[in-house]
Amino acid sequence: MKQSLLWRGLLVWACALAATGCSLLKVSVSSGDPLPDETLRLRTMTRGFYYDLSSGIAAAADSVVAASPRAATQLAAIRWKIRATRAAVEAAMQSDPEVALADTWILCRRMNEAFAQLPDSLLFGAESSIAREAAARFERRVARLSEQLLPADRQRLMERFVGEYVAAHPRPDDDGAAAPNTLLAWFEFLRANGREPSYATGSISEVMADVSDRVGSQTRQLANSVGWSRQMLEIRMQQDSLRSRVEGQLDSLERNFGRLVAVAEHLPGLSEQLLEELNLQAGQLIGAIDSSMASAFDDLDRQRVEIQHYVSTEREALVGQVQQAADEAVQHALERIPAVIGRLLFYVVAALVVLLGLPFLVGFWLGGLRARRQSGRQKAPSGDDSAPEQGGGSPDEGRSGPGESR
Predict the structure, then answer these.
(1) How far apart are alpha carbons 164 and 183 in whole angstroms?
(2) What does 209-224 look like in DSSP terms, one character per residue?
(3) DSSP class of 125
């Protein structure tokens, strides 16, 4: 019994020491692990290169438009500017930083190869060298960027992946501007080479900042595309069938006027009829010009309304997704709070049991031990005093007179 009590006391004492040696209890709500510094730097530098790439493509296309007098060349340059910048924003704004860098590299590689292979007659005529120099410069810059941001082995893997992917997927017929999403292809390439891809998404604040950056970039790209489309429309209005129709009407008017002069010299009676016909044709010409201009401006207004509706719809959808993600994070945190509170209460109750029960058990055991010792000490003196009394009586009692013995 004593040994069991002793072992129990030692066990309780050890639990108390372990409890006092533990660190303070902490209550935390998981909000996602932040991205490593290398991954965050890769994402930031890739998107910074996208802004330079987009502005460089726009500047090169504007130089071609300013230098070329041909409307076909100007339209081709503006079309390349719209497609290339749209492909650049889709490539650089990927959620995975490595995939974003790989897609941007593939875009620059395809654009450089396409411009190097196409003749001037199928590109931008005499101003094709401007686009070729820009594409070559972009590919060199993205290659240097990968060397600066990635480890040596990872950079060699990405360079080989870009080369193999471009070779296996020939460029489509869009000036080399298409850059499909290579997320699955990059992950499979890494696993085939014994490497594991990174699946980190970052904390809630990083995810929301990423979504905001992507929405802002897409909005700016859409606004630029609308402005460039308007520029193409203005060039077409200067060179399309409307101008041909106007020139044809003017030529016909000039011929009719010459006939009118010739007839008026010989037949004054017919001059009035010819003047009426001339007025009728002039009215038809003015009506055709007015209707064509009104139709063109109606098309512009309709496109503007549709684009504004599309932007509003996309923005509402993205805001809804962000709100849903935030609600799910808060709900997840609230679901974990009862478990955390339960563990906290368990630790508090255990600490109270250790801190209050241990002194009570130790005191109880020490009190019992002390009581047994005192009872043993009291029994020892009483036994010594009773022994002489039982062994014999007083001297007077041992002696008896003769009369008494008889």
Answers:
(1) 15
(2) HHHHHHHHHHHHHHHH
(3) G
Burial 15-24 (b: 16+ CB within 10 A, else e): bbeeeeeeee
Residue 109 near residue 159 (C-beta atoms within 8 A): no
Number of CB atoms found within 10 A of residue 108's CB: 27
Q: Which of 107, 66, 65, 61 is nearest to 86 (CA)?
A: 107
What's the confidence (pLDDT) of residue 236?
A: 76
Per-state percent for the chain, helix, strand, coil, to nearest 5 = 85, 0, 15
Q: How far apart are CA 128 and CA 116, in angstroms?
A: 10
Burial of 308 (C-beta count, 10 Å sphere; 0-12/13-18/19+): exposed
Low-confidence ranges of the chain (pLDDT < 70): 1-33, 171-180, 199-202, 239-248, 260-272, 274, 380-406
Quick one: DSSP state of residue 357?
A: I
pLDDT of residue 141: 93
Sorted by sequence, the CB contacts under 8 Å of residue 308 that are 6+ apart come out as none
Of 106, 101, 105, residue with least CA distance to 46: 101
- DSSP for residue 240: S
